[in-house]
Amino acid sequence: MATQSRTTLVSAERLPGWAERFAAAHGALRCDQHDDGLHLSAADGSTALLHAPWPAAGRPGRGATELQRLASLAAQSRTVAVVLIRSGGYALGLCRDGEVLVSKAGSGFSQSRSGAGGSSQQRSARRRVNQADAMLERVAEYAQLLFRPQPPGTGTDITNIGIAEYLVLGGDRALTSLLMAEPRAAFLARLPQLRFLDVPDPKAAVLKTAAREVQAIRIRVTDS
User: Fold this and answer.
1) Is 90 exceeded by the pLDDT of residue 83?
2) pTM of this prediction?
3) Domain limits at 8?
4) I need a labelling partner for 115 at 20 to 30 A (CA). Which of 29, 59, 145, 174 fits?
């Protein structure tokens, strides 16, 4: 019988309970730390590969076991810039501890196509390109506002929130690549990038979910 794999996201506080349930279902566990993550091997041949949400970056987790150290690392407070873009809209926010500190969201551009062909179809294509360019310019402007510290007296209420340590992109890979090419968003390219998120059309609720997923431990389980 072919093996089957599945991926789940687990918060730091839930990791001990998840490991206990995995051991109860599959037998005694052996833990091995490798470059690609923490490997768990169960007595029945099932395995789990656990990925920390971010690198230790000089701040390794603490604990007597590999699982405890992984949970400790995932529980650390890290400030992450999250940028989600699809044709239907965008949402970006500064996130920490699974919460959105500040954010901006808006609608995207129309994907409708003209069935007339010829010049009408070309005008529709140009309009979509112009709409996409305008959206990316707005996102780059908001990124400057949210992810860079603002000096006092600028009329914003987001001073001293903290500078992003990592960048998380999500949504449409082509659009996020175009954003990274925007001159006003060039500073984002200097941030270490974490895992790309596959999300639906971004809205405030989608951004809130992404903020929790950013700090979750990603586990790929392969059943024997």
Assistant:
1) yes
2) 0.85
3) 4-77+216-223
4) 174
